[in-house]
Amino acid sequence: MSTTETVRPGFSAAYQQLRGAQKSTPGAPAYSLYVNRPLGRVLAAAAYQVGLTPNHVTYISAFFSLVGIVLLAALPPTWLTGVVVCLALVLGYAFDSADGQLARLRGGGSTVGEWLDHMIDSAKISSLHLAVLIAAYRFFDLPSTAWLLVPVVFTVVSAVHFFGMILVDQLVRIFRATSGTPAPPKVAPSPLRTLMKIPTDYGVLCLVFLLLGAPTLFFGVYTVMAVASTGYLILILPKWRRDVAACDPGQGAP
Known about the structure:
By secondary structure, the protein is mainly alpha-helical. The protein is built from nine helices and no strands. Helix content is 71%, strand content 0%.
């Protein structure tokens, strides 16, 4: 009697296969493109070796993100707390990249997997800023309680940006699939556009928590990112509206 076993490629082979199967997203923020995706590639290749599924990796991502968020809200702001929170959030973000890469390595993801990934991302994005609000209220020596509005505004801006980005992408994909309209060719973004995306880069936000040992400096940098993210959202809204409007009958393809 013979048995047939699925032979997985080794770590190096899986890693190289992933390098050749990356999404073409030249407009992605710098940290996400040049740091998080390669790190996720390593984790995806390792996860493939031990037989994890993309959903398993998504849950691991959620665990690390939750640890970082809870510690941020619960512990006094020290340099050690900042390092631990940053590492937990960075690992959570890296595993978030790894789940999609693992899905491609295994031959494709699932609708449930994509739903799970987006649900966890939406919870993570809002919860992180609410944890900053709790930490600022409990531990920061702010000149006025009005400064507590900064993480509140950042929560709203981040949630709207994430939802808008996902919704526009899905609406345009549906339009192209139903109308047979091909996607436009990818073009490399300008350096100015790349710089404008820095405030929206979740990876950069994770690194800001390294400053937690100096609460005033941390909150100042955090506030700058909140203002810049708000500005970016205001600037991108007209483009999103044009992309969605182009999906209506009689309009040009987005």
